[in-house]
# Entry
Amino acid sequence: MTPLPEKYRYIVVEGPIGAGKTSLARLLAEKSGSTALLEDPAANPFLPGFYEDPARYALPVQLFFLFQRIHQVRDLSQSDLFKRATVADFMLDKDPLFARLTLNDDELRLYQQIYAQVKTPTATPDLVIYLQASTETLIERVKRRAVSYERAISEGYLVRLAESYARFFYQYEAAPVLIVNSEHLNFVDTPADFDLLLQRIVAMRGAREFFSFGE
# Structure
């Protein structure tokens, strides 16, 4: 077990579909003895329909995830973080990113009203690890994990999603961000890759740093 530095009580791993955020968050929590706080997309009954008919299912998908995320972070108080570090694979502040990408104007206004009413103050991450990869790599990874309803994800949607993530984190300043190009990194199956990342996390000093590993 490799404990995280004391200054990192709450780490968030983020990135578009196929970037590997859940796998890395789970592994980082396991290796560091931290609590894993993970999304549960399989619990969203509207998600399979969304990839087949986005216009019809975008709003219920969005609202289900919003309430799921709020429920998950509601009990994540500063006192809990002093007891045990937490590694999450989502950040509530990023929730509107998907809404702006998938909802029509009327739905977006409704979502924004609901979001403003139900969003509660949450702990600010001590570090955000933002995973990037090319659209081709994201598509290949999604196909490889063979989740049935994800087969309908279009390349165009992944392109727009990756661009939305890039814009979001370009402007994000609430917490330090380690931007990781995961194109040639396999944290789960290659221990050396995970060790390299852990070294960068421990050594990080600035508000925004980059980590990339070429072929």
About this structure: The first strand starts at residue 10 and ends at 14.
